[in-house]
Amino acid sequence: MATTRVSIFPLSGALLLPGMDLPLHIFEPRYRAMIHDAMARDRRIGMIQPRGEGPVPTLYDVGCLGHVSHIEALEDGRFNIILTGLARFRVLRELPVATQFRQIEAEVEQAPDEDEVLSAVERAALEQESRRFADMLGYVVDWTAVSRLDDVALVNGIAQIAPFDPASKQTLLEADSLSERSERIIQLMQIIGRIERDGGATLQ
């Protein structure tokens, strides 16, 4: 693992995973400054979830390093960007900095294997549970298109868009294999299903 300085964007509920894209609208002055800085250097920023509230919330230990693969500068200084996930990182310490945005020293993992696959049984279980989940929530899904996705795109795509709470999203980021992430997604869908059947609130 490599140790490096990372400018971070703490954002609750936003999940960036290696190999996946995350569209972001940048409007706060401190994060506009971060984008200017990143574009002048290596186009990289780290997405991480805050654990709490307040102007300087504590952070989860694990985030995902991203590359600004597309940027649209708006006339009023805001940006629309697409961040492409590179690799997970682990926070070692927060750095004392003069910038408006926070920076950390992080240990960055190697990029995961892009060819990671599920077994046929795992894939079938995930698709079956996803259909139940979508039907329960009234989502309209093109299942033919879903069936064409490779395993990485399917698992990570569900992880990003499913209505799980931030702590649950974090457990998906921290899963160490595609199989483990798929199993956690199924468990979360089943938990929400039970809550819905019991007339309670979802995990959102």
Offer a concise description of the structure.
The protein is of the alpha+beta class. The protein is built from 6 helices and 6 strands; from the N terminus they run ββαββββααααα.
Fold and architecture overview:
Helix 2 (120-137) runs parallel beside helix 6, helix 4 (151-161) packs across helix 6 (178-197) and helix 5 runs antiparallel to helix 6 (178-197). The longest helix is centred in the last third of the chain and has 20 residues, at 178-197. It is built from six helices and six strands. It is 37% helix and 26% strand. Strands 1-3-4-5-6 form a five-stranded mixed β-barrel. It has helices at 29-40, 120-137, 143-148, 151-161, 166-174, 178-197; strands at residues 2-10, 21-26, 44-48, 62-73, 79-94, 103-108. The mean pLDDT is 93. The two termini are 34 Å apart. The chain is globular. By secondary structure, the chain is of the alpha+beta class.
